[in-house]
Specification:
By secondary structure, the protein is of the alpha/beta class. It contains 13 helices and seven strands. About 3% of the residues have low confidence. Bound molecules: S-adenosylmethionine. S-adenosylmethionine (SAM) binds next to α1.
């Protein structure tokens, strides 16, 4: 498939890809709406918001690219936000979000919209937030202008999980290493190579054809930016935000996570043992703590894999 050329093409590819990904998204990315998920989301917010702001919480929040609800549904449960509006360009993701909210007994408003034209009145929200979304948006300046417009004076914008340009380059090292040792790893755990088993034999649909294969091929076109910390700060300041904070998170944890993810992607999923998945999950959490305690305050934000930004609309 040809790479998308225009901003409209990029939005279209994002919508199609995420519509297809919606059903399996939470399982694929290990998204959790219990205590572990809440702890992860709050840990991220603590890195860019002061204690008082976080303790006071936010009355009306607007999430951009909310996906299946990872941030808003966890923050509603934590009491950090009290009335949540969740937006996404993909109606499929919002359908999964609504199902998650219903299962958790949470009330949310969902609106399918791109980030660059928000169908909300000026000064409607106390918080505009998002996770792993800014790098999908073609016109970031326009999107930040919209975040500023819909926020009340004194309101805050918070985004986490944005890929850092340099951190992304560093992460290629473990990714390549993992790809090189993958055959040995599969032999060690007794897993078959992904693709070696016909799709029909795995899902029983009988025709050997993966109905989502074409949309999976879109995956490499949906991420369009990786940021230097200054890029994010400039986008926020350019829209009129003040008190801008940009931080980096996850270095060693990320290397570990990517190594395991690349290894796992080379195997038939059903063949990866439960014990291995536990090791990968617990190891990641332990290394996240190490990053947070030893590295995040000492090394430049640009070195980390993820960037977080918080800023305030002047009162
Ligand atoms: C990587 S997912 C993150 C989802 C969710 N925030 C999470 O952390 O699990 C990115 C989300 O952004 C949405 N998205 C992509 N481009 C968008 C755009 N231009 N405007 C609004 N949402 C967009 C996608 O549909 C997808 O749900």
């Amino acid at each position: 498939m040809e790479a998308p050329r225009t901003d409209e093409d990029i939005r279209d590819v994002n919508t199609r890809y995420h519509d297809v990904a919606a059903d399996s998204y939470d399982a694929k990315w290990g998204i959790d709406f219990g205590e572990p998920g809440r702890a992860q989301v709050l840990m991220k917010l603590r890195k860019v918001l002061d204690k008082e702001t976080l303790a006071a919480g936010f009355e009306r929040s607007l999430e951009i690219g909310a996906g299946t609800g990872y941030f808003s549904l966890n923050l509603l449960q934590a009491g950090t936000i009290r009335n949540a509006t969740c937006t996404d360009i993909s109606p499929g993701m919002l359908a999964t979000l609504r199902a998650n909210a219903e299962r958790l007994g949470l009330d949310v408003e969902t609106v399918a919209t791109g980030a660059e034209e928000l169908p909300f009145a000026d000064a409607s929200f106390d918080l505009v937030l998002g996770h792993a979304i800014l790098h999908h948006i073609p016109d970031l300046a326009k999107a930040f202008a919209e975040f500023h417009r819909v926020l009340k004076p004194g309101g805050m914008v918070v985004f986490a999980g944005e890929p850092s340009r340099y951190g992304d380059r560093l992460a290629r090292v473990p990714k390549r290493g993992a790809a090189a040792v993958a055959p040995l790893w599969r032999r060690a755990i007794g897993a078959r190579a992904a693709g070696s088993v016909p799709y029909a034999n795995r899902n029983g649909n009988g025709n050997g054809h993966d109905p989502h294969a074409e949309d999976h091929a879109l995956e490499r076109f949906v991420d369009i930016h990786a940021f230097a910390p200054g890029d994010l700060a400039a986008a926020a300041r350019g829209a009129g935000f003040a008190d801008v904070t940009v931080r980096g998170e996850e270095l060693v944890a990320n290397w570990f996570g990517w190594t395991n993810r690349v290894l796992e992607a080379t195997a038939v999923p059903e063949d990866v043992p439960w014990g291995w998945r536990q090791y990968a999950y617990r190891g990641y959490l332990a290394l996240q703590q190490l990053d947070q305690r030893l590295l995040e305050g000492r090394l430049p934000a640009a070195m980390f894999y993820n960037l977080l930004i918080a800023a305030r609309k002047p009162a």
